[in-house]
Amino acid sequence: MISKKVFLIGLTIILASLMAVGQTTAGLSGVVKDSNGAVVAGATVTALNTASSQKVTTTTDKTGQYSFTNLRGGNYRVTVTALGFAEAAETVVVSDDGKVTQDFSISPGAIKDVVTVTAGKGSDRLAVEIPQVVTVATSEQIEQRIPRSTFEAVERSPNIGVIESNPARERPRLRGLSSSRVLLVIDGEKLNNSRIDPGASGAPMAVVDPSQLEAVEVVAGSGSSLYGSDSIAGTINLITKSPTRPADGMLLGLRFDGTYISNGRIRRGTTTVNLANKFAALRVSANMYRLANYNMGGGELTLAENVSMGNFFRSIPTNAAGTTFQSAASYTIFALPKNAEILNGQGHGDGKQIDFWFFPSEKHNFRGRYLNSDDGNHGNAFSGPPYEVQERYSAFRSFDKWGIRYQGLDITKFIPRLSVNYFYQKLSYPQNLYNYTNIAGATGSYLNATTFTGNPSVFGSGALPSGTLSGASFTDNLNTVSTSGLDLQASLLPFRGMLVTVGGGRTQDNSNDYFYTSPFAGFGTARVFTGTATIGASAPVSRYTDNNFYLQGEFDRIKWVRVSGGMRFDNWVTTGLPGNGFPLSTEFAALNAATPGLIANPGALSSLAASIPDLVRLAGGTGSVNTNNNSVTYNFGIVGRLPWGINPYFRWANSYREPGITERYLIRNFSPGSFFASLVVGNPNLTPEKGKNYDVGVKVQQKYFNFSIGYFHNKLVDFLAYAPAQNYCVAPVPPGLPGSPGAVGFGCASGQAVVSINARVNFASGLIRGIESTGEASIPLKGWGSLNPFISLGSLYGRNDSPTTIQIAQLNAVYNRPNTPIKLTGSATDFPLPNITPFRMLAGLQYLDKSGRFFAEYNWRHQNRVTRADPGQFVGTTLINYGSFASTNPIDKQSLKTGYNWRNDRYKFSINVGIDNIMNKLYWEHFQSAPAPGRSFVFGFTVEAFNVLKK
Question: What's the pTM value of the predicted model, to 2 decimals?
Fold first, then answer.
């Protein structure tokens, strides 16, 4: 809740700013001509005040002239756009009460003047003057590309990758990091929350439908000094559409967007109504989508090839002595024909967005916004039989977001912008799992003792006499996180050429878990729940509160250079509260039994052992656990402005991530046997992960081309990783863990049980470095339009500076060998980090006709083979299958899109069609177990009436 004191301060600021409006008389005018010297009528001219982000727009008259009056003095970015022409832009200095003339010459092409609001934390900044790699996809570009998912809208960003293959579940990986190490924001407000686990989950981009996007911005590099926790690799901002407001009169606009993609039968539709006048605007949109299973590409997987990979899987050691628990029973054998249907890829959902804006004056506005997404039955494609023993999905996902904001622009000469923003959001979704066991030993089994027979291990129906599957357990782990946030921000101009952004606020996550598990038998529709269900929670009710203050300065008074720097202070207070069925009874009993051994002999878990008394109190329901951490982050950047549009840049920044709920407070038994409890235990004594990042490069912006190339270096310290498990023999045996002779193999006495404690500690360190480059050009074809080549590429290198003895044993056993089915390289002193794609490039060529209505585009994506991979990516008892190894292969995918866009001052109609994966290649996205979709035919269209009231 907002305190009364904070509310009164915010109200006072708003009322004071409403009374501070002064008159201005500065003016800006000019003429727009084409490259032949002919005037261009109907071109759109926008003047953006780079300090306040106030935009004013006009169109050229029949003589090509435009004019702005009553401007406030300052720096303006003036941009000219017209159908079929590349954008032309100039930075213009307008003095108070002065008159400035700026003429433009525009040429055919598709180049745009890129502006970002993410790098300015809500204020517009020119991408070419930001010392970071910035890529922006506009709503027009998203329409043309017909993306399969919200993630695909940003696939042209360098060094970006995808997690999962279901469009409704896809998450981004940026610069080799993912989940809570990449910050997702919606309209600048944090989507990430403290329940996200860096190894298992992430903020879902798909809560915003592609049709709702005005733009998506990817700002690579540390963003913690602006946005706080999680922005170690960078920040992705999903910017939603706002209402359209007329200069006068009444406006009623209607729009429909539709999409169909053949592979996976993806169907999306969005209806939008826009009602507005000069003082108020209302925009309401509703969308719906449906997904089905998809088909992979035209290659096939044979049983023999899968068996070969399974034997390699079994050769990877799982301890420092070089032996392994990776038995043949932990790896499934199956075959896939060409264009095989990939099961469990389904999903459906709908969403709404309601925006209401009120404009008491041109310089002040209030916004209310509601965003909703309700989704159901999201399958984790390629999980479950016949691919692996775990069938994973989410029965539903519910996301609701409310927000209110005040914004004042050009308030006074010294306060160009002021905003007060509050939001509340709630994200709720279960992690559902059917966990099967393979049946071995029957006639025709895939196993003969411990050797693969060449038969498939799992069938979809009862092909073996006794059936092929027996149920083990069903799990429903529901996570509900509500987040509230308040942010007060002001832009100040203390003197000419100096812009200061100052602000502060508070965010709070409240998390509540529900856990249900039950044994079951059968398969598919014949599943029957058996035995006694266990109900409770694997994580406690938790509260994460961040109080923050930030300051960013930008000095832009010298013609040849622009300097920026800033800092942010965050105070995180976290609490784990008793109750709510946490933990489950067997977990509490096992933890209690192992506590004396853990305290006496903690091994690598000394930080956990120190907090065990508090954790046991929390688990026993007799007390809470609290933490309090401060993080201070900084950034410094410099951009040169050399002749010919050459802008060299350098930036240094540090970053951090506050450990989440599952890392601090989770207690969960992932036991493979009745005598063995494998407890994952949260560690309250964790400290934030940290990064130190610098970027250096050059950006070039010319009339006919844009180009950038940069190098980054990100040193990672205090990263969280699982310490080697500590095993403890316990007696008397806890309830639910009957003793077994199997415990003797762990050095225990017969009748004892084994409790294995697994916890994360701050010991990992490493380095990620890479090169990133983007480029686009416009080649005029006289009266035929233009050719527009483009490219985006990135290379990555990752090194783990703290490998464990087990990891080194794994590398020594199977890496740098000439006869392994996949080639892996590395050494103990040059140990690979996980999830590093060595090289990725997306390049293409677009044709745009002279009217700007017709386009045709070809693009090709290539990714090099992965040879440097963490051996831990190939180790496990449940989640490893053929795709885990195939996902290191190179990728080559080609696409072709074309479309026509017709519009006048009242209506718009556009139609876009294309083919994705033209050659129907079989490939796996890097580090994903599911194959990617094969060839798809894509279709999208938009029908819009800008104002049905206009006569």
Answer: 0.93
